[in-house]
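Issue 218. Parser rejects a valid record. Input:
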Amino acid sequence: MRLRHVDKPQYRKMTNQVQIGLIAILAISSVVFGQILIALLGSASVEAGQPTGNFYFNFAGVILGLMLCTLMVKYGRVKPQYTDVYYVFQLKQLQNKIYRKLNAVQKSAADNNHDALVILCFYYQSLALVYELDNNTLTITEVNKQIAALEKQITDNQLTCDVSEFDIKLLGRF
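Output the parser choked on:
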């Protein structure tokens, strides 16, 4: 995966639309599916003060609503207007994979391992990109410090590190 420019206003607009849309679809479809299941399979007689026994039908409606949202995301992610949202989603998933191996990568980077340095360069720059897009001003200063420290280590040891060298296969070495 390569780092690329993302139009922040467009990304924020589309992210908000996706979130609001999925919440609305989940809420409406859960109620509709639950009511359909209750109408088809629920008990016809309801006694006052007694439970209706429809909890599981409502729960199944929520599960069906989640499945509908999953299908909508699966087929909607290829639409051109959602490419930035999907790109940032994939980038966050990749950051999570790197984070799981971050301690081992940082130890190797301290020994000037080239692959570890490439992974850290990509990781910190991708964090800066995502934090900027998400307006995370509290954490971005710490990431900028880590980027500066890494760049200092690279220049002090006369090494080279290019983010474009990053490949997910590099993580398999740690």
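Fixed in the parser; the record now loads. The mean pLDDT is 89.
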